[in-house]
Amino acid sequence: MPREAEPSLNEKQFVIQALQENLRLDGRELDQYRPLELTFGDQYGVADVTLGNTRILAKATAEVTVPYADRPLDGIFTIATELSPMTSPAFEVNRPTETEVLLSRLLEKTVRRSGALDTESLCLVAGQKCWSVRVDVHALSHDGNLTDAACLAVVAALRHFRKPDTSMEGGRLTVYTPAEREPVPLSWLHSPFCVTWSFFGDEGELAVLDATWLEEQVRVGSCTISLNKHGEICQIAKLGGTPVDAVALLQCTNVALTKVKEFSDLVDQKLAEDLKRRDKGGFMAELRAENDR
User: Domain Exoribonuclease phosphorolytic, which positions (predicted)?
Assistant: First the structure.
């Protein structure tokens, strides 16, 4: 399996010593994110997130299918991740690496298992037909902190997505095209986001937010905290590495809550801007004589 070039000993020592002096190579504070951009595509359910040099594209789709036998009243919701060689030489097609597996599991726990999407609203005919919502996550470039960027892209894509409207008459299900009826948004309950901390030092006493790829290669541990703007924690993933003091973890959680509120405000703002762009003047424009009709 191909591997990406590891940083030299001088690079490792330089990064660690700089962090111990509260300095980062890009001039950020230790608890500061890189510039974050969120854009939506012309099609509903496409979100493009850029976090520094890390870029994630998420696309949500839906199709009518048969529900699971053990959950006849629920729809189906899945998240699929793809890390291709375009992202990094360390990734191969159809050969999931440990990074891809961990990313997929973190997204599953954060978004799907936390009940962010109301799967009961996806049921069309109990035990017979339901909506199957799928989000495909594609990493276009990797410069560290894939988890936070991917989670933001998934949440934004799902909130932006619109599924076709349906009706049931005489036991017959009708799915309308966008030209016949306006597509309807998903039933969304809350917006969880991931905040990943990296720990440096012999005992992991130095906590750094939004580590770059170079910083990730020299860290001694990491912790991903998933929560929403109301302070409800969905998960805390501490996957090995140096143990972290409980008090330090609480401090990281408090900072994470502040960042999650900023993420939530950003998504709300971008959704409002996209809705305004698609509205083309709004309802009053339709009442005017001089319109596109």
Answer: 32-164, 191-257
